[in-house]
């Protein structure tokens, strides 16, 4: 990419993670993105927040829509401290071993993953594919504008197996839907910033217990 700090627009907005720790962005920049494959590909302009984090990769936050954040890894990255592969022989050899040894990269091994054997993942994929076909099939070249709405709908809809939304299990609270902002719901009209921050902190403290309870319900289901 060849980005430099001087190319960024200053940004004072803090970014918060699951642990409620804030990170100050280096700045923001607007870049073109090519979405889709030729001949149906289109170019859209997206606003990025550039953040310096202690990670094996430099990460950029791309805000493609108001209620949807996606993570994109930049092409500039440091050497990872560990590479995890399965136990098959194609990952064995002098070149790979010497490459890792010269760069002090640890090697880890894990069992072979077979997604088709994971019923939970297959069920989720089935729902997402159905929503993609229903909502995007007749949009032609405008499908990229509506694409973020499909995963957003899935994340904010309670699952019958867990009774919770994927969004609440990730962030500890339910999302405020755009329709609530337009209709002035009870949630929106009675919003209090200080009380909300306190409730968010309590929800994050109880999040692991909520996930454990959801996992137990899922196993029973």
From TrEMBL:
- PROSITE patterns the record matches: INTEGRASE
Q: Name one GO molecular function term.
A: nucleic acid binding
What name goes with this protein?
Answer: Integrase catalytic domain-containing protein
Q: Where's the Integrase catalytic domain?
A: 6-174
**Mind listing the GO biological process terms from this record?**
DNA integration
Q: Which InterPro entries match?
A: Integrase_cat-core (IPR001584), RNaseH-like_sf (IPR012337), RNaseH_sf (IPR036397)
Organism listed in the record: Cannabis sativa
Which PANTHER family does the UniProt record give? RIBONUCLEASE H
């Amino acid at each position: 990419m060849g980005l430099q700090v001087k190319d960024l627009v200053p940004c004072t907005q803090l970014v918060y993670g699951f642990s409620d720790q804030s990170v100050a962005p280096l700045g923001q920049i607007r870049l073109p993105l090519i979405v889709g494959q030729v001949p149906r590909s289109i170019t859209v302009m997206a606003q990025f927040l550039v953040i310096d984090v202690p990670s094996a990769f430099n990460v950029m936050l791309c805000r493609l829509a108001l209620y949807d954040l996606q993570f994109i890894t930049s092409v500039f990255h440091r050497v990872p401290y560990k590479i995890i592969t399965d136990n098959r022989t194609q990952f064995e050899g002098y070149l790979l071993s010497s490459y890792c040894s010269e760069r002090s990269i640890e090697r880890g091994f894990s069992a072979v993953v077979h997604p088709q054997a994971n019923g939970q993942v297959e069920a989720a994929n089935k729902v997402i594919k159905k929503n993609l076909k229903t909502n995007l099939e007749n949009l032609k070249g405008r499908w990229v504008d509506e694409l973020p709405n499909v995963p957003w709908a899935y994340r904010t809809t309670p699952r019958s197996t867990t009774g919770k939304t994927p969004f609440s299990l990730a962030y500890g609270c339910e999302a405020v839907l755009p329709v609530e902002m337009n209709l002035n719901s009870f949630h929106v009209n009675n919003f209090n910033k200080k009380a909300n921050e306190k409730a968010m902190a309590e929800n994050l403290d109880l999040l692991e217990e909520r996930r454990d309870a959801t996992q137990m319900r899922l196993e029973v289901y």
